[in-house]
Amino acid sequence: MGMRFTVLSSGSTGNATVVDNGEIKLLIDVGFSAKKMELLMKERELEASSIDAILVTHEHSDHIKGLGALARKYDLPIYANEKTWEELDRQIGVIAEGNKRVMETGGIEEFGTLRVESFGISHDAAEPVGYCFYEGEQKLSVVTDLGYMSEKVKEKITDSDSLVLETNHDVDMLRVGHYPWSIKRRILGDKGHLSNEAAGEALCDVLTHKTKSVYMAHLSRDHNLMDLARLTVNNIVQERAPEAKQLRLMDTYFDRSTKWDVLDSE
Hints:
Oligomer: single chain
Order of helices and strands: EEEHEHHEHEEEEEHEHHHEHEE
Radius of gyration: 17 Å
Distance between the termini: 13 Å
Helix content: 25-40%
Low-confidence stretches: none
Structural class: alpha/beta
Function: Counteracts the endogenous Pycsar antiviral defense system. Phosphodiesterase that enables metal-dependent hydrolysis of host cyclic nucleotide Pycsar defense signals such as cCMP and cUMP.
Number of strands: 14
InterPro entries: Metallo-B-lactamas (IPR001279), RibonucZ/Hydroxyglut_hydro (IPR036866), WalJ/YycJ-like (IPR052533)
Strand order of the largest sheet: 6-5-4-3-2-1-14
Mean pLDDT: 96
Pfam families: Lactamase_B_2 (PF12706)
Protein name: MBL fold metallo-hydrolase
């Protein structure tokens, strides 16, 4: 069947994505309670017991809220780098030693024919990462929670069939919003979150003829709108990368999952 994925939920209240190649199912982050995760998976006809492993991007609560409980309930291995594990050990409770797997930043793990590569990103966490997933010629990149898109990150995610990419905020909405300036400064900083404009500009550097879809993820409920994110990104891409006519900009949701997206084998 090749590779398919669903964004179970995305936003400041919680994040989780499933990647499936027909034999292996990987869960990226567990940003909700174990019970909520089970419900989100059932929306896509998934059982939590079918998950083979969990990959962690970083230790913030909207990415690991239910990590310990879900891993213990279903005896799941957890993959994270050493610095992230140092933070996880203080937050998620006891995990069986055999399920504590170290995947260093820049490392590659193979799960059957599904290959996973991690890469470092800029965010205010211990050692945050994004992931690229490879199945044959297919490539999916998942990258959220980054203050800016470095050239190294662009290099890693270029030529993806599909991307899950952060479009966290509209800069003007954030600046006039109700957050204290200290928080606004954090979000706008190099270790904060990617704006709609920054995401659109970065896309122009990584899109190729292969890229069919981009899922706009981790939207702020206070300082963004899905229609605004889509319009901003689309305008930038159409102006700077008009050859990307086949690109689909896809929504993600804080309260429900996206439909399965099956990557073409072409």
